[in-house]
Design goal:
Elements lengths: L7 E4 L2 E4 H15 L3 H9 L2 H13 L6 E5 L5 H10 L4 E6 L2 H13 L6 E3 L12 E7 L8 H11 E12 L7 H20 L2 H12 L4 H10 L3 E8 L4 E7 L3
Parallel strand pairs: 3-4, 3-6, 4-5, 6-7
Antiparallel strand pairs: 1-2, 7-9, 8-9
Helix pairs in contact: 2-7, 3-4, 7-8
Bound molecules: S-adenosylmethionine.
Length: 249
């Protein structure tokens, strides 16, 4: 259950104490961190790269901007932003999970980007208000316990004229639902077991997608958090959606 002070929440299809979700999610990402990028390519047949490219294009990054990548994990977005800024501007890679963040930070350094990496919870961002021009969160919101708090924090740290981009799994269009179910609940956990030695984490992935707010619900949540001109793009028939919202004042 989401809300101001929820006592329980979803962890996939399980209902767990709200205070316990972060620990369970941390377990998932500590377990998969070293195989995360390979699994992403295999699971999505490389499509996650196209979804992220679309997100990067929609972000309209310009030199001099300050960008915050929340739940940035292995830094796919942060690296692309840093490449575009070419040292003029700031890209902050953040994640709650030390294992994911250290893979991401190493990849940034391997690319020659000297940018900050900060371990922090999206629900309580350690940044001043109105600091960033862009905030992005890719495949991260679904894992957060109090999504409303996280969205409010992302709104707080954006300056007027700033933009939030949320890339996340969403509700697939109806004719594909059956096929998608078979893929998610039969194929994914097997792939996870084989490649990452961890079927449970990939079962959690499939379940967490099903309990995540659909496109229209998430649009309403962004509006509720104070974002204006909220819109979304369905990608791959709604397997994934990119939501955008602006901060006007
Ligand atoms: N953004 C990266 C990408 O698109 O490849 C990583 C996405 S990965 C599926 C989800 C990430 O969300 C994990 O690295 C996890 O540690 C992070 N995460 C989960 N809950 C979080 C929270 N409350 N605050 C910040 N990061 C969180």
């Amino acid at each position: 259950m989401e809300g101001e002070h929820p006592t329980t929440t979803h962890f996939g299809f399980e209902t767990v104490a709200a205070g316990d979700k972060a620990r369970r999610v941390a377990g998932v990402f500590h377990s998969v961190a070293s195989r995360y990028d390979l699994m992403n390519d295999l699971m999505s047949l490389g499509l996650h790269r196209a979804w992220k490219s679309f997100t990067i294009a929609q972000a309209s990054i310009r030199p001099g901007m300050r960008i915050l990548d929340v739940a940035g994990g292995t830094a796919d977005l942060a690296r692309a932003f840093a490449r575009r800024l070419q040292g003029r501007g700031e890209v902050w890679l953040t994640d709650i999970n030390g294992s994911m963040l250290s893979v991401g930070r190493d990849r940034m350094l391997d690319d020659g980007h000297i940018q900050p990496a900060v371990q922090c919870d999206a629900e309580s961002l350690p940044f001043p208000s109105r600091y960033f021009d862009r905030v992005t969160v890719a495949f991260g919101l679904r894992n957060m316990t109090r999504k409303e708090h996280a969205l409010a924090e992302m709104r707080r740290v954006l300056r007027p004229g700033g933009k939030l981009l949320v890339l996340e799994f969403s509700r697939v269009c109806q004719p594909l639902e059956k096929l998608y179910d078979v893929y998610s609940f039969e194929v994914l956990p097997r792939l996870g077991a084989r490649i990452a030695g961890d079927a449970d984490s990939y079962r959690y992935l499939a379940e967490s997608i099903r309990v995540h707010p659909d496109q229209e619900t998430l649009k309403g949540m962004l509006e509720q958090a104070g974002f204006a001109r909220v819109r979304y793009f369905n990608l791959a028939a709604g397997v994934v959606a990119l939501h955008e919202g602006l901060v006007l004042e």
